[in-house]
Write a structure and sequence with these properties.
The protein has 6 helices and 14 strands. It is an alpha+beta fold and 238 residues long. Strands 1, 2, 3, 4, 5, 6 and 7 form a 7-stranded antiparallel sheet that branches. It has a 3-stranded antiparallel sheet with strand order 8-10-14. The protein is elongated, with a radius of gyration of 20 Å.
Amino acid sequence: MRVRCVALQGEGGQTVMGSSGLAIGDEYVVLEVTVSAADVNNPITYRISRDHKDESPGIWPASLFEVSDPTIPEDWILEPSPADPDRSQRHSSKFSGDFWLRYFDGDEQARSTYRTVVGTEPVTLFRPVGQAELDLIEESDYKRFPPRLPHQPIFYPVATESYAVQIARDWNTKDAASGRVGYVTRFNVKGSFLSNYQVQVVGGSEHREYWIPAEELAEFNDHIVGTIEVIHEFHGDS
């Protein structure tokens, strides 16, 4: 299950505590859904993994998100919260019982289990491309990115949709080599593979990207889950 952040403030207009770790427009993997019969302000909350290396998955009100992929993993179970009988939780069977208590107490077995579960989840990335690159992606049935050119030693997928939009709209549309058109592509990569690379911050907090050496792009393509989709299109002056 995946959700997209659409707000950082609650219904009263106040910023939700801890929401600085979120970014509007970004997608996140839901690890657990909790329903509370007693909490009228936040009856539903999500425990979220902010990225594949997030060692401190937080809990946020469901009202901050919209569901982008409602698919529930097959191993999820429903059980009462071990700390509060008024709460019911749905999560992986591997997270049952007192798992989260053990996890945050530093239990290494629980930590290992968490890394395994999160590592199997695909990570959503984005890439702004011009017309020539999109044509080559289409030739692969939207399954692979084309090899880098000799003067392009690094492949740069980005972590946020807003960053990809900024590049496609403000740079690709002014670039003759891009055909003065910019597209934003979205795709998923296996988290276990992506964990081999560090997130690089190249400006503001939303300017996060991965640096994939050109010679490793073929292997990167092998770990794309599903297809590459185009979600935005921008045109400059011809």
